[in-house]
């Protein structure tokens, strides 16, 4: 969405305004929860390192080699991102629209 697509509606009803404010509060609450949980996970990780030590080589055991399935999954994620951003639709619109010529006075 760009700034050209944003419209201002001054005629919001009281119910619509309350609903927008509720969604805004829900978003702020979710972001605050995520911030606090990530801080808690960092503290928990430090506690585990103190108790058991840092075993970074252990993580290498779980890393299976980069196979064709990994590349296929990467392709799916990339295509899904382009579909979500509606790149395909925007490319079709720009091709079908005639180009405007600049008028020189």
Any descriptors?
single chain; 105 residues; mainly alpha; 3 helices
The backbone outline, from C-alpha atoms, is flat
> Which spans of ≥5 residues are poorly predicted at pLDDT below 50?
none
Tally of DSSP β-strands = 0
Query: What helical percentage do the residues reach?
Result: 55-70%
Query: H/E series, N to C?
Result: HHH
Count, helices: 3
Strand content: under 5%
On the 0-100 scale, what is the average pLDDT? 81
Distance between the termini: 33 Å
- Please tell me how large the radius of gyration is: 25 Å
How many individual domains?
1
Biggest β-sheet, characterized?
A: none
Please identify the structural class as seen in this structure: mainly alpha
Family: Belongs to the nucleotide-sugar transporter family. SLC35B subfamily.
Membrane topology: Multi-pass membrane protein
Subcellular location: Membrane
Pfam family, one: UAA
